[in-house]
Amino acid sequence: MKLPGLESERIWITGMPFSGKSSAARKLASLLHWQRTDTDAQIEKDSGMSIPEIFASLGELEFRRKEKELTDLLCSAQHRVISTGGGLPVFYGNMDTMLQNGTVVFLNTSVEIIAQRSLEHKDRPLVHAVEETQEARVDFFRKMLFERLPYYGKAHHTFGSEKALLEWAQTLL
Ligand code: S3P
Q1: 73 occurs within a structural domain
Q2: Domain residue limits at 111
Q3: How far is the CA of 76 from the CAs of 5, 70, 135, 140, in angstroms?
Q4: How far is the CA of 87 from the centre of ligand 1 (A)?
Q5: Is the CB of 6 under 6 A from ligand 1?
Q6: In a domain, 29, yes or no
Q7: Which of 4, 41, 109, 116 has an alpha carbon within 20 to 30 A of 144's alpha carbon?
Q8: pTM, 2 dp
């Protein structure tokens, strides 16, 4: 079953770390009565290791390989909202895979909010080395966003907040 207005049976939520993808996915899945997968959580479950452990013991490339494998697998999932790790769209052509196999949403939360949240939650390996000040984090995430925008920017829909994303979803019902 496709919902009216939806081009596909899968919605991929992409965006920077701390942009609120998991929370938006939870609400969207509940609104649509769809299943939900969070790629980070699924990789942790499948490998029996946390993301920081995977980065530390297997390395980032092995993590990216796991993301690619999972992305391909999820292309056959039905009625599924998928929140992706922030770097997933950048590697192995995953953004094009998602675009061809679902509706891709970019949650474009402001860099200031992302920086603030990164200081409150300390579980993401990519920011460990960055000084713990709002200014340093804003600089860091601004650069990351600049590098990733060519990928995120290809999404079918871009929203500046979870609220805007959910309002769009309401129009599909
Ligand atoms: C990463 C983001 C993380 C996680 C990993 C790498 C990234 O996910 O996949 O630490 O490269 O931006 P979130 O976007 O859920 O934080």
Answers
A1: yes
A2: 10-172
A3: 20, 11, 42, 35
A4: 6
A5: no
A6: yes
A7: 41
A8: 0.94
What is d(CA 100, CA 109) in angstroms, rounded to the nearest whole number? Answer: 24
Overall number of domains in the chain = 1
Contacting residues for 16 by C-beta, under 8 A, at least 6 apart: 86, 109, 111, 114, 141, 144, 145, 148, 152
CA 123 – CA 128 distance, rounded (Å) = 8
Q: Which atom of ligand 1 is nearest to the CA of 21?
A: 15
* CATH of residue 136: 3.40.50.300
How remote is the CA of residue 4 from the centroid of ligand 1, in Å? 32
**Mutation probe of ligand 1 site: the residue of 44, 88, 109 with most atoms within 8 A of C-beta:** 88
Read off the pLDDT of residues 81-131 as tens digits, 9 standing for 90 and up. 999 999 999 999 999 999 999 999 999 999 999 999 999 987 777 888 899
The answer to whether residue 114 sits within a structural domain is: yes
Residue 76 lies in a domain: yes
pLDDT range class, residue 1, cuts 50, 70, 90? very low
Ligand 1 centroid – CA 170 distance (Å)? 28
Decide: 52 in ligand 1 pocket, CB within 6 A.
no
